[in-house]
Amino acid sequence: MSPSPTDRIERTITVRAPRSRVWRALTDTAEFGSWFGVKLAGAFEPGARLRGNITHPGYEHVVMDITVERMEPDRLLSWRWHPYAVEKGVDYSKETPTLVVFELETVADGTRITVVESGFDQVPLARRAQAYRMNGDGWAQQMQAIARHVG
Amino acid sequence: MSVRASRRFGGGALAEAAPVFAALGDATRLDLVSRLSSGGPMSIARLTEGADVTRQAVTKHLHVLAGAGLARGTRVGRDHVWEIDSHRFDDARRWLDHIESQWDEALGRLKASLERPASKGKQTGK
């Protein structure tokens, strides 16, 4: 059965940096945290679970929790996580996580990064619509705040 | 905005979107949506041909999709022809647009950090 039109998203950006440099920014825990806005503990390795609090003011209670799946140096990184797992005291571990895949490709002016997140159809219905909304307002706002802070 | 405030804010739109996700949360209905999306309008007879379920069951599922505004049926002679109502899919799609914008923000930060000229004291040529 083919996935529904609401199951996945895909985003792409090109950066003026070689793939090895991008790879480091994605897989070095401290570097990742600096642009994503999270203080993760642990190292990126296949099968590794990294957890840590979001660093944006007002969201420090939100724990980001990812399980690394595949790592092909300079080419592919994937992890699973529970999107928008932001409510205190809620056990998200029984839910099917979404899959996030980063792929790197050398292009004329640097590296093209493609992010695909899929599995949204498996997010429980009771939480899904809420998740979309919270994600839109909460996370985008958080990212903008980080942009203001760093940039 | 706090998480709590954002949930309050989203209430009305959520109530509107929930039936769409509920209607799509079934394997047979997803299959019908998939076939109508790729094959265009089809009669119930044709939709039943490729399905593992009875004509009655297909009809029932189509009415659930119609209830969520995802499909609509028109009587043509003795049969009903069904098609996708893309307007409602646009609504569902809008939620994913929010997630995409989240990733755009994150990737924008990543790009800025990689292209900052004096990172680690080393100039990177443009």
Plain-language structure description:
The complex is a heterodimer of chains A (151) and B (126). Chain A is an alpha+beta fold. Chain A has a single domain (8-150), classed as Alpha-D-Glucose-1,6-Bisphosphate, Chain A, domain 4, CATH 3.30.530.20. Chain A is built from three helices and seven strands; from the N terminus they run βααββββββα. A seven-stranded antiparallel beta sheet of chain A has the order 1-7-6-5-4-3-2. In chain A, a hairpin with an 8-residue loop joins strand 3 and strand 4. In chain A, helix 1 packs across helix 2 (29-36). The model of chain A is unreliable at 132-151 (pLDDT under 50). Chain B has one domain: Winged helix-like DNA-binding domain superfamily/Winged helix DNA-binding domain (Arc Repressor Mutant, subunit A). Chain B has five helices and three strands; from the N terminus they run ααβααββα. In chain B, helix 2 (27-39) packs across helix 4. The longest helix of chain B has 30 residues, at 86-115. Chain B is elongated. The chains are: A alpha+beta (151), B mainly alpha (126).
Summarize the structure.
The complex is a heterodimer of chains A (151) and B (126). Chain A is of the alpha+beta class.
Please state the average pLDDT score of chain B.
Answer: 74
| Count of discrete domains of chain B | 1
Name of the CATH class of chain A: Alpha Beta
N-end to C-end Cα span of chain B: 38 Å
Number of helices of chain B: 5
Give me the Rg of chain B, rounded. 22 Å
Number of strands of chain A: 7
Arrangement of strands in the largest sheet of chain A: 1-7-6-5-4-3-2
